[in-house]
Design brief:
316 residues; alpha/beta; 13 helices; 8 strands; Aldo-Keto_reductase; oxidoreductase activity; NAD(P)_OxRdtase_dom_sf; AKR
Length: 316
Amino acid sequence: MSKSLTAPAVALGTWAWGDSGEEGDGYFGSPLSESGLREVVEKAQSNGFTLWDTAVAYGMGRSETVLAQALKGFSRSEYQLSTKFTPQMAGDGDDPVADMLEQSLDRLGTDYVDIYWIHNPADVARWTPSLIPMLKSGKIKHVGVSNHDMAEIARADEILGAAGFRVEAVQNHYSLLYRGSERAGILDHCREHGIRFFSYMVLEQGALTGRYGPANPMPEGSNRAGVYNGILPQLQALTDRMAAIGKERDASAADVATAWAIAKGTTPIIGVTKARYIDGLVRARDIELTAEGIAELEALADAADIDTRGWWEHEM
């Protein structure tokens, strides 16, 4: 067995790095430059944020390629790579999991990944066993499952357990607005079994940053505007309170949303496209919310009464 999984307080997401690179064609309408992303990496690494989360599904491998480029010059032991097998993209060879991993290793310019995830629970019994030979060979150090419910996590763990391995990480959508994994007991399960829970969409694509509100909606025509602009009025009380808590600590509402996810015992995965975003993560890492503060934010979130479950997610 390789040594147990460790991770920084916050992991860095590179979903938006998988854009086509064409001007204005980024997921967030922001063209990303090689020098800009290099700056992100240097600042993140020097502040101890050294776990990078990507996937073949992010821009059909482009995110992996761009990430490898940005990490050039850093020793492989100085950072961790997290990428994913997406069943919906499986090829029809004899071993689609191994094939997808090899392609990822090639794009990432490495001979192992620190965490390899089954991205969606298409067929746990079918895909999980294929990870065992790659754990044995060392191409994968740790296995994670993403968007899996309690029964699927247990089934994957049972399959790996028979070979002396285990599920060491769970990655689900988890935010103040979407606490399905907590209500289903997944957070408790992870805590009890020493499994690291990675929370994604902690900022709900910007809706919880305090940057947007009824008077300043998300850019029209973007996918996220369609999902979130209609609910911004219901979020105003929550984002105002987060902004107020942040102000007392020279931090932003977004930093408070991230600090909440850390306080809940999870490792938030925050998308970074600009070096200055790292400053917010440094602040979030240092914010200590009280139990009262956490309860107050959750009550405001519950009062907003909205469901931000993604189209790709099933009920937890």
